[in-house]
Specification:
By secondary structure, the protein is of the alpha+beta class. It contains seven helices and six strands; from the N terminus they run βββαβααββαααα. The strands form two sheets. It has a four-stranded mixed β-sheet, covered by helices on one side. It has a two-stranded antiparallel sheet with strand order 4-5. A hairpin with a 5-residue loop joins β1 and β2.
């Protein structure tokens, strides 16, 4: 059966409150398992149905029942998106037309160093009873935080090299706030304040 193509301009927000955002700006919130499924495909790429079932429906004893629940989930996502969002074979994958915010880290931070790309992967969602998926999510969140911190540090370093101290400070302030125990972030902040002539700060 041929399903409608993914609508052009559809974006997937996985940071903070997960939602689907259409080209006209209309947003549809995603529930926990929908968001979890899409996060796995966005972060890990194509993933087998069996892996998804083991992570998101570990407590369903009957394999046929679990697979039916996944089919219903995929049907729901297709209806929410207004077209094909996830491939429906034995290996699941996001449609290549779908953009998501994890792809846009550099652009979001360039546009807004103070607030861009803020928030945790899947926000405050938790998945009691899905221990293996929770372990995956904890690791994915940690990788995302490191990636964002590395980008902020690189931006601050680049701005400092260009003698754009105010711009470098904006990145350094955020880095120090998000990584308060990172000595390199505190040292960078102190050096930039000194270079700006603000010795008291």
């Amino acid at each position: 059966m041929q399903h409608p193509a993914c609508p052009p301009g559809l974006r997937l927000q996985l940071l903070r409150d997960p939602q689907l955002i259409r080209a006209d700006g209309a947003a549809t919130p995603l529930n926990g398992r929908d968001a979890a499924l899409l996060a796995v495909l966005a972060v890990d790429g194509p993933t087998s149905r069996e892996q998804v079932l083991a992570w998101l429906w570990p407590d369903v004893g009957e394999p046929a029942r679990a697979r039916n629940m996944l089919r219903q989930r995929l049907f729901r996502l297709r209806r929410l998106a207004g077209g094909e969002l996830v491939s429906s074979g034995e290996v699941l994958a996001l449609d290549t037309a779908v953009r998501h915010d994890l792809l846009d880290l550099e652009a979001m931070l360039d546009d807004d160093p103070a607030q861009g790309a803020a928030g945790e992967l899947l926000g405050a969602l938790a998945f009691p009873g899905c221990d293996d998926f929770t372990a995956w999510l904890d690791a994915a969140r940690e990788r995302w935080r490191h990636r964002r911190a590395d980008r902020l540090a690189a931006m601050s370093e680049r701005h400092e090299a260009d003698d754009r101290i105010v711009a470098a400070l904006a990145c350094a302030h955020r880095l120090a706030a998000e990584e308060p125990l990172a000595e390199h972030a505190q040292r960078r902040l102190m050096r930039l304040h000194y270079r700006r002539g603000d010795r008291a700060a």
